[in-house]
Structures are given as structure tokens and as C-alpha cells.
Amino acid sequence: MPEPAFFVVMVAKIVVVFGLMVLSVAYVTWLERKVIGDIQVRLGPMRVGPHGLLQPFADVIKLMFKEDIVPQAADRAIYFLAPTLALITAFISFAVIPFGDRVRLFGRTIDLVITDVNIGLLYVFGVASLGIYGIVLGGWASNNKYALLGGLRSAAQMISYELSLGLSVVGVVMLSRSLSLVDIVNAQSRAWFIVLQPIGFLIFLICAIAETNRAPFDLPEAETELVAGFHVEYSSMKFAMYFMAEYANMITVSAMATTLFLGGWRGPLLPPVFWFVLKLFLFIFLFIWIRATLPRFRYDQLMRFGWKVLLPVALANTMVTAAFVALR
Amino acid sequence: MEWLVFAPLAAMALATALLVVILRNPIYCALSLVGTFFALSGLYLLLQAQFIAVVQVIVYAGAIMVLFLFVIMLLDVGHEPPPWLRRDAPRLALGIGLVALLLLELAVAIGSKVSHGVRGSYTSELVNAVGNTQLIGRLLFTDFVIPFEITSVILLIAIVGVMVLARR
């Protein structure tokens, strides 16, 4: 039985990480509107607060007071369950990601990770694979053709790209000889894995964009053909929950890319947590930049690219890395 | 302490497994099955088998059940059960009889002093010392390499078979 202080530290870590994550989700939406505005030579939100800094709060208040519409033919239980599922799975994967080195606080050594489990990497993949349910079930429960098609598309897309995503990090696992994310960060003390695994990194990045349903892979919500996709019937806070889940997933995936390929919190001079946040937001900026730049894939192109390009390349990368590790 | 985790998980596994059979809407049945897989994964964790626990979630809950849902949604299976699934008296009696027989068998097996658990060489101390995933990997490529390869060949045959059938 662990001592009570263990639980206090644990709860404190969970509260702080969760709180910061919700705040980041709010401000990533602001960042996205600002950056895209800038790229399209507009100003973006300017009215609420200086440079629109209070815009996320205005959005939350607006969404909360919107009318909550439930379609008459909807499957009520699942219609309510689906956005919750999407939100929960988006948030809980952060539990195993290390965001800083060990620190001494009030005479105790505290690891800056909520929990370091020996299968941390697989845990993240497990939770990510469950994220599909929120989207598929939401699309089905709405009892709307467009929503159903959007949900099914997203399921097919996520399952296809999950394979390459999993294979792209096998190289990292082989080099660090561990599935624990803390060990993986420690294994990068000499060289970041982006140097040793450039192809793995590229595949990871492409699949990560597809997994989070962001442009140019945002087919589940292609507005020109599917209205809004799986969440077309959702309104008010339930819609907001899907939205929050998307941005939370973006943050988690960026944190994973940072941890697996950019050395996690490692960096010179500045404090580790700062490095972690800096690298994380670098990826988020990249996500937004890509969305503002690239047009959407067509569905058959997407599937062909996933199965006939990404998967073979990821397999080849795994084999080459395995040979390298075995011969060393 | 262990009971505090085991009892709810076991109860959940049983309850969701029952719901898979009892519920009428196929989507609800599939979701209950996902619940069962989750409870099982929790039980694996309790047995110090973290790797199996997570793989259970990734493979069954995350991939296979999503495909099940996919098919159910696309086929739009109605809420009316098919004629061969009707619940009439003789079938109910048959089902209850079979369950009673199985329970009796289980009670005899547990009650008898013949079947003791044998303590194998892979204790939780050893597993934690070497590492869960590492140990499974080593076993798969040494002691169980032939069954492992045979399984992969069988899966490959299935994939080729699916391609052939789909091309017809």
C-alpha cells in the first residue's frame, strides 16, 4: 500500500495536466484562427479582448447557451455517449507522456509524468484506436445518411492509417529497446531519433495527421460532399465536445511526435518543461500551416496512398532498422 | 486489496457478456462485447500481464469490433430477430439445461481437490525483472517459434483467400 503523499502528488499531477490541457485546447483554437487568418491575409478574431485573446471564452459561453437539438429518430443513449467517448479518449492518452525531467519539490523527488508504465507506447495506441468509436457511433446514432457515411469513412481511414502509424514507431522501439515513453526519451540523450529514423518520422507525421482527421485528410467531415460529416446533427455542448476532442488529439499527437522523435523534454540551457512545450507547439503550428496550405485528398487517393505507399515504406523502414540493430 | 479490483471487473465481464446475448439491437450487443473485452483487459492487468492487456484492447476492441460495427451499420440489421433466433419454450429449456450442466461441471472441477494450480517457472517476480514484453518476445522466437510461424502462415492464407473470393 503506497503512502498517502503518493496519492496527493498523483492527484495534483492529474489536475494540473488536465487543466493545462483544457486551456491549451481553448487557445489552440484561437491560434489556429489567428495563423490561418494571417496566411490568408486577414486579421482573424480581434474584437473580444486584445487581439481576440478572450475569444475562446466567448465561444465557450456561446456554445453552452445554444439550443441542444436531438434528432427525433436518433438513438438517444448512444447519441449522448459518443461525444463523451471521443472526449475521454482524447484526454487520457496524455497520462503516460513525460513532459519534464525529475524535479525536487518540497523535499520529494517527483517525476514529471503522470504515470510511467512499461507499455506506455502501446497504451497510447490502444486509447487512440478507441477514439474511432466516438466518431463511428456518433455518425450512426444521429440516424442521418451524411453522418453515417462520415462516420464509416473515418473508421476505414483510421484503421488503415493506424497500421502504418504503428509500424513507423517500431524503429524507435528497436533503437531504445523499450516501450516506456520515459525510457524512449532517455535513450535520446545523445541523438534525437529524428536523425536516426527520418523516414519513420515522416510516416509518423503523415499518419498522425490522418489519425486526427485534420486537413488534408479531413475526409470524414468533407463539407463539400458530406455537409459536415459525422457531427452534422450535433449542436451546443455536444458539438463542442467533438471539437475539443479534435484539438486535444492534435495536442496529444504533437506530444507523441515530440517524445518519440524530438527527444521529448531534452534541450540545452532552458528548463525541460519549456523545451517540451516549445516542441509541442512547433508541431501544432505545422498542423495549422498544412491545413491552410494543402487541398483535401480524394477518398480513393487517400486509401491508395495509405495502403500502397505508406505501409510498404514503413515495412521497409522497419526491416532496415532491424538489420542495422542486429548487425551492430 | 486485489478483491477490490477483481470483483468489479469480474462482475462487469459477466454482466456485459450476458448483455451481448440478451440485448436485441445488434449495435448494443457489439458495444457490450467491447465492454467484455475491457473487463478482460483489466483482469490481465491484475495478473501482471500488461502487454496482453493492451494488445487485447488494440486488437479486439480497437480493430476487430470496429469492423463488426462497420458491417452491422452498413447492413442496417433490423431490430427484429431472425426467425431462427426466436425465443420459444423448448429452446429456452434447452439453453437453461445446458447452462445448468456446465455450471455443475465447473462446480465439481473447482470443488474437487484433484485440480491444483501448478506454479510454473514464470513467476511475476521473474516477469517484472526481465520485462513483460521482452519475455513474451523471447519466448515467441525461441520455444514457440514454430507455432508462431505456423500462425502467421495461416493468417497469410486467410488474406490470400479473401483476395481471391473478393475478386470473383
The CATH level-2 architecture of the domain at 1-79 in chain B is identified as Up-down Bundle
If you consult CATH, what is the topology of the domain at 1-79 in chain B?
Four Helix Bundle (Hemerythrin (Met), subunit A)
How would you describe the shape of chain B?
globular
| Contiguous runs where pLDDT drops below 50 for at least 5 residues of chain B | none
Q: State the end-to-end CA separation of chain A.
A: 43 Å
Number of helices of chain A: 13
What general outline of chain A do the C-alpha atoms trace? globular
The CATH class of the domain at 1-79 in chain B turns out to be Mainly Alpha
Query: From the helix content, strand content and strand pairing of chain A, which structural class follows?
Result: mainly alpha
**Into which percent range does the helicity of residues of chain A fall?**
55-70%
Order of helices and strands of chain B: HHHHHHH
Number of helical elements of chain B: 7
Could you explain the architecture of this structure?
The complex is a heterodimer of chains A (328) and B (168). Chain A has 328 residues and is mainly alpha-helical. Chain A contains 13 helices and two strands; from the N terminus they run αααββαααααααααα. Chain A has one domain. Chain A has a two-stranded antiparallel sheet with strand order 1-2. In chain A, helix 1 packs across helix 11 (236-261) and helix 5 (145-168) packs parallel to helix 13. Among the domains of chain B are: 1-79, Up-down Bundle (Four Helix Bundle (Hemerythrin (Met), subunit A)), CATH 1.20.120; 131-168. In chain B, 78% of the residues lie in helices and 0% in strands. Chain B is built from seven helices and no strands. The mean pLDDT of chain B is 85. The chains are: A mainly alpha (328), B mainly alpha (168). At the A-B interface, helix 4 and helix 5 of A face helix 2 and helix 3 of B.
